[in-house]
Amino acid sequence: MKDSARILSENKIRLTPQRLAVYKIMNDKKGHSTAEEIYEKVRESFPAISLATVYSILELFQEKDLVRQIRIEFHKSRFEVRIDDHHHFFCNECKQVFDVDMPCCSALEEGAVDGNRITHFHGYFYGVCKECAKRK
Ligand SMILES: [Zn+2]
Ligand SMILES: [Zn+2]
How many angstroms does the Cα of residue 81 sit away from the middle of ligand 1? Predict the structure, then answer.
């Protein structure tokens, strides 16, 4: 796996310790974190950093296509370093978000739906995850 500093400089992002820390947290964890979660973690090494700074770093990463934002819950943005097209499943019980890799459907193979060209796609699924279902 490429190290975080290299990924940032390859994407022409000027390295600052804070940017590097934010990316590293996201890259180590994978998964889907809220800005607040990233902020809490990055504060362990940079106690003076503000949530606004974390948001602006995430915005920069998004512009450079290094992270993606997902809004599977209406009022909550989550960010992830996985940037290929994939869907998400939200568990109503444990509130976790899981990646969903789905087989290609005919619309995606054609790259068009109803004659409209698709540039990207994103499905949200809601329900009860395997682990929560087992516990019941
Ligand atoms: Zn669950
Ligand atoms: Zn994902």
Answer: 22
The pTM of the full predicted model, rounded to 2 decimals, is 0.84
The set of residues, in sequence order, having a beta carbon less than 8 Å from that of 4 and lying 6+ positions away, is 20, 23, 24, 27
> How far, in Å, from the CA of 100 to the mean position of ligand 2?
7
CA of 91 to the centre of ligand 2 (A): 14
* Contacts (Cβ under 8 Å, ≥6 apart) of 117: 111
pLDDT, one tens digit per residue, over 18-58 is: 999 999 999 988 889 999 999 999 999 999 999 999 999 99
Distance separating alpha carbons of residues 129 and 132, to the nearest angstrom: 5
125 alpha carbon to ligand 1 midpoint, in Å? 13
Report the alpha-carbon distance of residue 106 to residue 110 in Å, rounded.
6
Residue recorded with tokens 């990233």? 38
